[in-house]
Amino acid sequence: MSEARQNIIDAGIALEAIKKSGYRSTATAIGELIDNSIQAEATDIDIIVINKMIRNGNRNSNNVYKIAVLDNGTGMDLDILASCLKLGFGTRKNATQGLGKFGFGLKGSSISQANTVKVYSWTSKNEVYMVELDLLKIIDQNLQYFEAPKKINLPEEIAIHFFDHIGDSGTLVVWEDLELRFKRSETLSSRLNEELCRIYRHFLDDDDTYGARRYINIKTLQEESGRIDLEPLKANDPLYLLRPNNLPEEYSSISTNELLETIELPIDYEGYDGNTHHSKVEIRISLALPEIHKLGGNCALGKHYGKNTGVSFVRAGREIDFGIFNLIDRSDPTHRWWGIEIRFEPELDEIFELSNNKQHVNGFRGIRDEQVEHIMEEAEDGNLNAKMLLELNKTLTHQIKKMHSLIKGRGLGTRGGGNTDSDPSLNRANTTISQSNQATSSSQINQTDEE
Question: What angle do CA 298, 300, 304 make, to 5 degrees?
């Protein structure tokens, strides 16, 4: 038997496994890079989609060729850059504040979408260094080590077309040899906008109380012509309180819901020291203004609401999960007119069973009647996850019934809308909301009812 020491992990096999790590979409994978940019104090973050015409059978197709994320953050020093693609490395592992957690995001998200990832970083504009992970090369040559960072120029297409957006410090992540679910540029840009505007909504509005403002843009570069199309991300808020937002233009600078209640729910959790600590979740509940509800579900605004039917879990300002969680009958359209946001900090990651790619809160679902007794017994035995599940379910179930009753009590149609161009309620809605918004700001949204 050989006594030579062996690697604990075969790099190629491990990376292939991570490649299938379960990112819901390209947008959520890019989200990991945006998280890193926010942690690096970037104020400007560009998602660069590079298109290239290719021959596809008998026709030309304009497909996404590369994807890059460019920021003006603090950049990485050489020691951090040298390790940033290493499995298990992270500067914020087990953090109890901020967006980072597992040291997984950069490499996990990148190789889920591309076979090659290159990370360029600089703390001084003329001192750019790069590290690279080439999955196919690692597998083919059975490589177990990364090469050291090398001094290099930024890619020509970035340096030429985005010169004015390269800060004195920053980071550029480039994905090459892509393996995307959707390859056409229009499809990808649409999906990026749809998902990222909701995930990062608290960083896209005008108030810095819960998530300092960032300017995140999708910039599409056509390789052959050099044309650049710009699409700024705007907040998509399921509570319809934030502004500016991505609602139809006449509503994009106002709040179309009112904040009805803010509830603080105490939660116990076990710390890394093995002791029980105390935290809280904050539950925010909003309801569409009657003038908005009256417009009905068939108008553009009502359809926007319909796509945001559900409960949102937000961690440190960034949405982690959104859905019905066995709490809502999605076939009932009245549920679109309210919103619930549940805020928690990273210290509760274990209680909520945050997935390692920050895609899900696996520890929460609506409790079925036949499960209640067993979960109560677990809670009585000191199971803190079960205790949280019971308390949060009790609160949410009560609030959802309350919202449903309020909506039903208005006596308005849920599938109406008709021709809103000729409906005088549209003008009344605009007038009423404009007046009500004089006293509504993102900072006031953060106040409790007692305040």
Answer: 95
312-350 pLDDT, tens per residue?
999 999 999 999 999 999 889 999 999 999 999 999 999
Q: Are the C-beta atoms of 101 and 63 separated by less than 8 Å?
A: no
pLDDT tens track for 142-171? 888 889 999 999 999 999 999 999 999 999
Residues 6+ apart with CB under 8 A from 100: 35, 36, 39, 90, 91, 92, 93
| Per-residue pLDDT tens over the stretch 59-71 | 888 899 999 999 9
What is the token pair recorded at 131?
A: 């590290």
- Give the C-alpha separation, 308 to 443, whole Å: 23
pTM above 0.90, yes or no: no
Q: How many residues comprise the chain?
A: 451
Q: Are 313 and 320 in contact (CB under 8 A)?
A: yes
- To which H or E segment does residue 262 belong? strand 257-270
- Beta carbons of 289 and 257 less than 8 angstroms apart: yes
What is the bridge-based pairing of β-strands 276-288 and 129-134? unpaired
Q: How far apart are CA 411 and CA 275, in angstroms?
A: 51
Report which DSSP code applies to 184: B
Closest CA to 359 of 92, 24, 18: 24
CA distance 272 to 347: 10
Q: Which amino acid is at 61?
A: S
Nearest 10 degrees: Cα torsion 36, 41, 44, 46: -10
DSSP result, 348-398: GHHHHTB-TTS--BTT--PPPGGGHHHHHHHHHTT-HHHHHHHHHHHHHHH
The HSE-up count of residue 231 (CA atoms within 13 Å, CB side) is: 21
Q: What is the DSSP string of 2-68?
A: --S---SS-HHHHHHHHHTS--SSHHHHHHHHHHHHHHTT-SEEEEEEEEEEEEETTEEEEEEEEEE
pLDDT value of residue 311: 98
pLDDT band at residue 421 under the 50/70/90 scheme: very low
Tell me how far apart the alpha carbons of residues 189 and 199 are, in angstroms, rounded to a whole number.
Answer: 15
